[in-house]
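seq as requested:
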Amino acid sequence: MKNAQTSNLEKQYREAMLKAIAAAQEVDQEFNTYLTHHKDEPQYTDCMCALAQKLAEAAAVLKAINNADAGEVGGDLVITKTTRRTAGGGTWVCGTLGGHRFEALVFPAHADHATWELGNNRISKLWVQRLADKKMVYHWDRGLDMPAENKTVQALMDFLCAGLAEHTYAK
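struct tokens:
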């Protein structure tokens, strides 16, 4: 008999596969429409970029589910962008982790008021969105606005809180 975690992972896997298939079909249809209207123009770059992006998102979701099944968190962390703020300090860090996209405002030092910081980790803002359905699953803006949707999201949050500031500022 399957346990609840296995059943949930199988459900997530099936949903991710359906989303991956739907995304690929959508891009394929767009690409074919483009070709029909522009068959004499060799400009396929936008269509190919859209296809690559949708397939990359689907792959990230499937990889996250696979990692969750193996009990791993963090092996697929990708920092996609860091932007140092000129006013107020801190660095915006954007990336993907476990089939989710995140944006975090991270500081080199602890906040003046401990309540402005997520735990004791120099993160003052953190937003997390599930890639599969674009749903926001966590939000902190100098205070909890939306708790982690489930244990999987909480595990991702714990991972980010444990080392994002150290990674960002190499401390």
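The mean pLDDT is 77.
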